[in-house]
Amino acid sequence: MMVKDDYDVILCKLLIYLYAILKRKTVYNDVEFDKTVRRNVNEDYFTDVLRLAQEEGLIRGVITTKVWGGSYILLSSPADLEITPAGIRYLKENSTAQKALKVIIDTADIFASLASAIGLHI
């Protein structure tokens, strides 16, 4: 069972938000981003999720640097993030993303409306 801080759930939230921006269904807002996508997620873990999503080719615009201790810090702003065509396909076709979408929609009204606005249905 997926939980709200599972990698796939966070990734799905991020991709839905970025896809909604791309489709002009919402505009980036720091408060909304933090409240919806980043909510209750450890900053270091969130940076790792962003870094891994970019390595998978699902998003672009992530700039990090490795600091003492081996962790990464985010140098770019979340406002600079963009979903890629691979990220859109992941949202629409990946079975894990569909399971994560169900968890998100069951627990968050804003994602239900954003998912619907961009044409994602479970």
Description:
This protein is mainly alpha-helical. The protein has a single domain (7-117), classed as Winged helix-like DNA-binding domain superfamily/Winged helix DNA-binding domain (Arc Repressor Mutant, subunit A), CATH 1.10.10. The protein contains six helices and four strands; from the N terminus they run αααββββααα. The strands form two sheets. It has a two-stranded antiparallel sheet. A two-stranded antiparallel sheet has the order 2-3. Helix 1 packs across helix 5 (95-107) and helix 1 packs across helix 6 (109-117). The model has no long low-confidence stretch (mean pLDDT 86).
The tally of domains stands at 1
How much β-strand is present in the residues? 5-15%
Task: Write down the CATH class.
Answer: Mainly Alpha
CATH architecture: Orthogonal Bundle
Per the CATH scheme, the topology name is: Arc Repressor Mutant, subunit A
Largest sheet: number of strands, sense, barrel closure: 2 strands, antiparallel
The chain-level structural class is mainly alpha
Distance between the termini: 17 Å
The level of helicity is 40-55%
The low-confidence parts are: none
- What is the helix tally? 6
The CATH homologous superfamily: Winged helix-like DNA-binding domain superfamily/Winged helix DNA-binding domain
Strand order of the largest sheet: 1-4
Supply Rg.
14 Å
What number is the mean pLDDT? 86
